[in-house]
């Protein structure tokens, strides 16, 4: 994920005078502060909180079976910059990751473990005669290694269409909360892995499965065994709760169980759902190449460690280690004193005295693993996550925070929070809503908030009865895709304004490109190149910046008031470049008065003409510009005209299946629909076509 560079490479220095010894004159010492992407070697592993937050083992791990170094120092990397270490089935960086969906055979034992049911197929390889065993693609399996809430997922393809593709899918998610655990003399967790000829593979293997016997004979098998707390008997400490479902309600599962008890014949998928719902023991078997098996063992060690830590201490166990005296639900939990987990940190402010690095503090870090489908294993963990997200925002530089007197954020209808966070309203007045352009510090919740997703999800979009005057063709997309068709456009929007007439006159040459007079225009900058901004991790696109400069100056010289134009970009580097280009213009052009805003700054502002520079030019690495919240802001800031600069040609190839497919992810649906809509309405103009007729 791209990260804005809030400080550039600016280091501030000042002098201190330290009293000398005896009659020696005072020694002049220079103290400097610098923001860096790589922590100096002498400060690595030297955090003040290291003994508290980064122990080798948990105190109750008496036999030292679950090394926490697998989490906070995986592979000798204390500062990997992301939550889950990357485990691959080989040493090559192009080797497949272990944590992917795999076809699986599951063996489900009933509550008394007296009977077992077998479903699925353990491999993507099968023979025609295997089809007699049922749906060979019924079950898929994946391990999710989030450090604070790890889980094991099963996907059951419940129904298929005539083309064989799934039309109804159900997910079973087993978090560490559900596993049997022991913290006495023999610490244990109800999760075991094995590969090839390990004893854990052979023990309990269903004897009637020819496929398993063949894989075992080839030493190409991976086994996962789960022991779960009984449905009616939960632990009194640590994380608790049964596995959760998505795609089916508890009432529907109860109905299936009732039908099964009455002797009704259920489909294979429904029988698997009923068996999983009450089981206390599940074994999962899947194929892994014999030569890849050894690469699985570090992965198994990591997963068992985070399962043990979560099950025995509870979710968000890092924050329990960091403040052992306060419960997570305590009103006195010291959020402001708790540093983010070091493995998330990407940038530090380093203090040097006389050139020697003596201290460092995090200034930017990535988020912890999220739960994208919004189905959480427990409410207490959810409540803490929301409190953490709010606290991180409240802890930022208050000079760029504004008190929110009401829940309504702006006229576009952005309200402050869901009812679930009403208890935190006393802190909401400290949320960062934007920064001054002159400020050196600029850190968003994405760059310094490990609970950023839950925090942003708590800021919901609700329709208001009358939207500020957006042109109907600009308002159409957010009305359909974001506001569920409930936005009412003010009647005044249908009246051609003087500015619209002026801009349409200035854009008259575009008619030669096939422009249909739409006020929403996508400028395809596929042929330009995005690069890193200086020595930072932010990005710039010189081609987009040059277009913005020419267009803004052209509009202003043509009679458009500079205050009616706003430029928005999610990248700090691009904003700095565009702002500098505008400031270098002659004062008589008025270009210096045009606003250049980040997305957070733009939330509370609008203009008649909005220019959005998306910068990203690599279709394989689109980054965070797809986020629905950001898009909602970007496409609703311009009331009369909206120009969106982006790599539309390359993104279109992605949608056509001619490249990798990050745009097919569910989380990017809004971005995908925006691109498809621009092409469908013939609202995309290439940069070359624009330049040919406008210059």
Structure description:
With 695 residues, this protein is of the alpha+beta class. The chain folds into 3 domains: 212 residues, no CATH class; 83 residues, no CATH class; 223 residues, 3-Layer(aba) Sandwich (Rossmann fold). The chain has a 6-stranded parallel β-sheet. Strands 3-6-7-8-13 form a 5-stranded antiparallel β-sheet, with helices on one face. It has a 5-stranded antiparallel β-sheet with strand order 5-4-14-12-11. A hairpin with a 5-residue loop joins strand 9 and strand 10. Helix 14 crosses helix 15. It starts with 11 loop residues before the first strand and ends with a helix. The relative contact order is 0.10. The N terminus is likely disordered.
Helicity, in percent? Answer: 25-40%
SS elements, strand count: 24
What amount of the residues lies in strands?
15-25%
Biggest pleated-sheet summary: 6 strands, parallel
CATH class category label of the largest domain? Alpha Beta
**Shape estimate:** globular
Number of helices, counting only DSSP H or I runs of 4 residues or more: 20
In CATH terms, the superfamily of the largest domain is P-loop containing nucleotide triphosphate hydrolases
Give the CATH architecture of the largest domain.
3-Layer(aba) Sandwich
Structural class: alpha+beta
Task: Using the CA coordinates, give the radius of gyration.
Answer: 29 Å
Describe the strand arrangement of the main beta sheet, using strand numbers.
21-20-22-23-17-24
Q: Can you tell me the residue ranges where pLDDT is under 50 for at least 5 consecutive residues?
A: 1-26, 397-445, 459-467
Number of domains: 3
Mean pLDDT: 80
């Amino acid at each position: 994920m791209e990260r804005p560079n809030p400080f550039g490479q600016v280091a501030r220095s000042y002098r201190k005078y330290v009293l000398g010894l005896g009659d020696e004159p005072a020694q002049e010492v220079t103290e400097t502060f610098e923001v860096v992407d790589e922590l100096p070697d002498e400060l690595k592993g030297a955090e003040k909180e290291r003994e508290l937050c980064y122990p080798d083992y948990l105190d109750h791990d008496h036999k030292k079976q679950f090394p926490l170094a697998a989490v906070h120092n995986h592979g000798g990397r204390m500062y990997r910059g992301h939550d889950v270490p990357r485990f691959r089935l080989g040493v090559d960086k192009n080797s497949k990751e272990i944590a992917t969906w795999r076809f699986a055979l599951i063996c489900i034992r009933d509550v008394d473990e007296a009977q077992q049911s077998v479903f699925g197929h353990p491999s993507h390889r099968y023979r025609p005669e295997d089809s007699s065993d049922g749906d060979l693609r019924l079950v898929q399996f994946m391990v999710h290694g989030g450090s604070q809430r790890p889980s094991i997922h099963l996907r059951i393809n419940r129904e298929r269409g005539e083309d064989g593709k799934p039309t109804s899918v159900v997910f079973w998610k087993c978090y560490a909360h559900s596993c049997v655990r022991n913290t006495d003399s023999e610490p244990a967790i109800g999760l075991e892995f094995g590969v090839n000829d390990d004893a854990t593979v052979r023990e309990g293997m269903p004897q009637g499965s020819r496929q398993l016997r063949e894989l075992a004979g080839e030493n190409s098998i991976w086994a996962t065994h789960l022991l779960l707390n009984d449905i009616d008997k939960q632990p009194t400490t640590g994380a608790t709760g049964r596995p959760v479902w998505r795609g089916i309600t508890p009432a529907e599962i109860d109905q299936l169980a009732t039908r099964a008890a009455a002797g009704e014949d259920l489909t294979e998928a429904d029988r698997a759902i009923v068996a999983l719902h009450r089981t206390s023991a599940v074994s999962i078997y899947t194929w892994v190449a014999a030569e890849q098996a050894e690469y699985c063992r570090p992965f198994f060690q990591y997963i068992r460690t985070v399962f043990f830590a979560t099950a025995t201490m509870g979710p968000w166990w890092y924050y329990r280690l960091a403040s052992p005296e306060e419960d997570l639900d305590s009103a006195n939990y010291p959020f402001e004193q708790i540093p983010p987990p070091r493995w998330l940190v990407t940038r530090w402010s380093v203090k040097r005295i006389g050139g020697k690095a003596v201290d460092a503090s995090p200034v930017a870090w990535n988020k912890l693993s999220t739960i994208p489908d919004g189905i959480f294993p427990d409410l207490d963990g959810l409540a803490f996550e929301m409190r953490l997200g709010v606290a991180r925002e409240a802890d930022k530089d208050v000079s760029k925070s504004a008190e929110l007197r009401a829940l309504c954020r702006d006229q576009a209808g952005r309200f402050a929070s869901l009812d679930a966070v009403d208890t935190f309203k006393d802190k909401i007045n400290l949320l960062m809503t934007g920064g001054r352009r002159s400020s050196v510090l600029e850190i968003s919740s994405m760059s310094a908030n490990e609970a950023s997703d839950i925090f942003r999800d708590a800021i919901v979009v609700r329709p208001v009865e009358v939207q500020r005057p957006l042109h109907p063709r600009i308002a159409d997309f957010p009305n359909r895709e974001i506001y569920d068709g409930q936005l009412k456009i003010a009647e005044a929007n249908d009246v051609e304004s003087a500015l619209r007439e002026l801009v349409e006159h200035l854009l008259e040459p575009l008619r030669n490109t096939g422009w249909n007079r739409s006020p929403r225009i996508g400028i395809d900058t596929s042929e330009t190149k995005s690069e890193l901004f200086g020595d930072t991790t932010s990005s710039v696109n010189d081609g987009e910046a040059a277009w913005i400069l020419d267009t803004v100056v052209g509009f202003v010289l043509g009679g458009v008031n500079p205050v009616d134009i706003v430029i928005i970009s999610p990248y700090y580097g691009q904003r700095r470049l565009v702002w500098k280009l505008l400031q270098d213009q002659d004062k008589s052009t008025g270009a210096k008065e045009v606003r250049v805003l980040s997305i957070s700054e733009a939330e509370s502002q609008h203009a008649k003409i909005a220019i959005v520079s998306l910068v990203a030019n690599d279709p394989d690495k689109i980054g965070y510009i797809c986020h629905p919240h950001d898009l909602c802001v970007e496409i609703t800031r311009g009331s009369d005209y909206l120009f969106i600069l982006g790599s539309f040609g390359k993104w279109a190839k992605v949608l056509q299946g001619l490249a990798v497919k990050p745009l097919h992810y569910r989380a990017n649906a809004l971005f995908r629909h925006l691109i498809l809509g621009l092409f469908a309405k013939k609202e995309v103009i290439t940069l070359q076509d624009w330049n040919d007729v406008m210059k």
